[in-house]
Amino acid sequence: MIKIDENGFYGDFGGAYIPEMLYPNIEELRENYEQIMASEAFKEEFDRLLKDYVGRPTPLFFAERLSKEYGAKIYLKREDLCHTGAHKINNTIGQIILAKKLNKKRIIAETGAGQHGVATATVCALMGMECTVYMGAIDMERQKPNVERMRILGATVVPANSGSKTLKDATNEAMRQWINNPVDTHYIIGSVVGPHPYPEMVARFQSVISAEIKTQLLEKEGKDSPDIVVACVGGGSNAAGAFFHYYNDEKVRLIAVEAAGLGVSSGKSAATTQLGKPGILHGSKTLLMQTEDGQVVEPHSISAGLDYPGIGPVHAHLFASGRGEFLAVEDEDAMKAGIELSRLEGIIPAIESAHALSALNQLKFKASDIIVINLSGRGDKDLETYIKWGNY
Amino acid sequence: MNRIDELFKNKDGNILSIYFTAGFPKLDDTIRIMEAIEEAGADIIEIGIPYSDPVADGPTIQDSNNVALNNGMTLKLLFTQLEGLRSKLNIPVVLMGYLNPIVQYGMEAFCKKCQEVGVDGVIIPDLPMQQYTDAYKELFDTYNLRNTFLISPQTSEERIREIDSKTDGFIYMVSSASITGAKKEVSPEQIAYFERVRDMGLKNPRLIGFGISDKASFTTASTYSHGAIIGSAFINVVREAKSLKEEIKTYIKGVIS
Fold it and tell me: Do the beta carbons of residue A15 and residue B147 sit within 8 Å?
């Protein structure tokens, strides 16, 4: 595991930069989450729901035709086969059980593309809890099917009309609503972002991904570590889960793939490690895309799930320490990689995950290398984007 | 002597602090608004440094932040506007801003500049106490700046005492579990919270803010503390004002008369 200090810092990044009004909420969580997560009752319920409800373990699939194309042994970790279509539900299952143990009555969440919102609305329906999801007004417009999915599941979807009306503003709005309802409400953050202990807690819920990779790889290859693990990074929850059990295994290359948008220098990008510098957003110190004056810059990516101006503090640390290798993939190349996987393996990936796939074009590796790509989600939600793009 | 300390030494109640956002409604209104506030008889001016992501603020102040940023307001420009401030005004001035723009400016440069132009104190809502004491307190002391922390109805007694021991100037009591913005009447639960904190015998004076908007709420707040802070309601006055100075004066006099 990667070391986090008592104040929630991974090296220089992390912490809990929150208004005092949120201090009791965060403190309650910080004091209780480890103990609750370590309890047998929690583990039993979490494992059972991941197995019987989410459908875990997800397969580790040897992608034979893709491997032949790129000249390496490529495995896909099939998070796209999780209930609701992405890895996001691993975290919402964990947090909803936690919220129940903390006697919370209401759940709030932010969402960008709507995947985390749907995963939250789903577990709230499962547990019979009231659910409100904040979503940027612009995102609500461009992700209508997910808005309706949340409503079918019984959640209230509230538009965030402030700022740029996208994910970061939905996050601001959720934090404001938590300030307004500090006692009976739990805020389910969807990525490894936010004030300590969220980044660590979410990473631990997602760590099931690399725990399974280890077991599955041992079965298939006779060793539990690949040479390379690749995952896309917006906030970075699927990457944190895929890297988690390999942080200290220095032989394993950890490749984090950011969204370059229309190009890193185009002014329309979400490549945070290349464009950002240390700053504070949503409660943690991390790498942040910002103006010289410290105002947060609006990112761009064709993939709504990668369209975030920051990055989880654990990834900022991986970048700064050199433990992780960071690549950036442009919209166009991600789309091509999505089509390529569809044609070679019969799997239409989420455009987020297509960024990870496209990294194969930039990476240097040997023919004998074993590469695991975390296929974080499926492409159903992106059908409209694929259709608009059209080159297939 | 720091002007905040001086104020609380000479006046022990009914202190009115007025918040406005720098660069709102127009980029160069800053000094004009400050002069009107002082002339109208308020006691402290709190200048908001606009930020793209003000998580502790309600729609009114969010909107004023957006307008100010679109007008081109920056922290650098604000300091330029405040140059020569002390040849015009005597009122204590506090800067309120989120941490990121200040950190990008540089905390030491920021503190130094505050002292140079005659700013007396700072409120940074997302700067945690631990970080402040570990990293910045010495700087604040060096440049004779008072740092104000917030407390809310959920803040434990132990935590309030810790904040009281590590802070100076005054304590900002958030009136209810909420973001900024005008509210309805003061509830019995709020009164109980005001009394509870009043009876703790803290070393720092207390001002109550969030939801204070008029003479009635100001008077109630002042009954249980040293005074109150008005923000959103004042922003609304400034936004609508046809004659900025006149309407600011009429509004403030209406609150304190």
Answer: no
Can you give the pLDDT of all 257 residues of chain B as single tens digits? 899 999 999 999 999 999 999 999 999 999 999 999 999 999 999 999 999 999 999 999 999 999 999 999 999 999 999 999 999 999 999 999 999 999 999 999 999 999 999 999 999 999 999 999 999 999 999 999 999 999 999 999 999 999 999 988 999 999 988 888 867 678 899 999 999 999 999 999 999 999 999 999 999 999 999 999 999 999 999 998 999 999 999 999 999 98
CB proximity list for B203: less than 8 A, separation 6 or greater: B164, B165
Of the partner residues A15, A168, A293, the one whose CB lies closest to the CB of residue B74? A293
Beta-carbon contacts of A388 under 8 Å, excluding residues fewer than 6 positions away, are none
DSSP calls for A340-374: HHHHHHS--B-HHHHHHHHGGGT----TT-EEEEE
* Nearest beta carbon to residue B125 from set A15, A16, A19: A19
Q: Find the length of chain A.
A: 392
Helical segments of chain A, H only: 23-38, 40-49, 64-70, 88-101, 115-127, 137-142, 144-152, 167-180, 198-206, 208-221, 237-243, 272-275, 313-321, 331-345, 351-358, 383-389
Residue of A nearest to B134 (CA): A7
Sign of CA dihedral A283, A284, A288, A294: positive
Residues in chain B: 257
Written as six digits, the tokens of A164 are 């740029």
Q: What's the token pair of residue A286?
A: 């991390």
> Which residues does residue A14 pair with via DSSP β-bridges, in sequence order?
A9, A285
Residue from A79, A110, A258, A352 carrying the catalytic annotation:
A110
Please choose, from the candidates B170, B177, B180, B106, the residue with its C-alpha nearest in 3D space to the C-alpha of residue B143.
Answer: B106
Q: What is the ipTM metric for this complex? A: 0.93
Look-up: residue for tokens 């917030």? B150
pTM value is 0.96
